[in-house]
Design a protein that fits this description.
9 helices
């Protein structure tokens, strides 16, 4: 298999797992009340956090699983529950409007668990075992660069859809995030049941 084929076979699943169209409305909602400099900081912070967490997990994930005696399906269930809780809180309570609070959301929850969530981490770990570390890392770099680009275009998107439209999109995105969380939990539970 050529390097290009390996890259392509890792790029597409990682692109789907990171789900930029699903995260973008959430970024818009988080950054809406902030200054431009804070928005840039959040965008950079989120992709750097996601990259560090993802690459760290690719290299250390299986070691950590073995040390803690947990399986990938356990991680899927735990991560799914975390995403579900975040989704419910955001749908019901909404985002705090404080500039200081907003400026802290680049790393958590935007960087992780939204960009580098259980789906991304599990996908990257499995792909690294199949195709090697280099294609996975290159795919992460490219997909996270695309995420950063989409974040920098967020203001243009807001001008088109308006602030109320952005809020509505964020609520819908959190509904989809909740559905993804339920899918992760369900898949993990079925794998646990199937292994017994």
């Amino acid at each position: 298999m050529s390097n290009f084929e390996a890259f392509f076979l890792t790029f597409i699943p990682i692109l789907v797992a990171i789900n930029i169209p699903g995260v973008l409305p959430i970024y818009i909602s988080i950054s809406e009340p902030l200054k431009k400099s804070q928005k840039r900081t959040i965008a950079i912070q989120s992709v750097i956090t996601a990259f560090i967490v993802s690459v760290g997990f690719v290299f250390l994930g299986q070691v950590i699983f073995n040390a803690l005696r947990i399986q990938v399906e356990d991680f899927m269930i735990g991560g799914g529950v975390l995403l579900l809780v975040i989704s419910i809180i955001e749908i019901v309570a909404g985002r705090p409007k404080s500039d200081q609070q907003g400026a802290e959301f680049g790393a958590v929850p935007l960087g992780t668990p939204l960009l580098a969530g259980p789906a991304t981490l599990t996908t990257a770990l499995i792909l690294a075992g199949s195709y090697g570390y280099l294609p996975v890392i290159l795919s992460l770099v490219l997909v996270l660069f695309l995420a950063w680009l989409s974040f920098t275009w967020a203001e243009f998107i807001i001008r088109i859809i308006g602030h109320n439209g952005a809020r509505a999109m964020a609520k819908v995105a959190y509904l989809f995030l909740a559905a993804i969380a339920v899918h992760l939990i369900k898949s993990g539970v079925f794998k646990v049941i199937g292994s017994k």
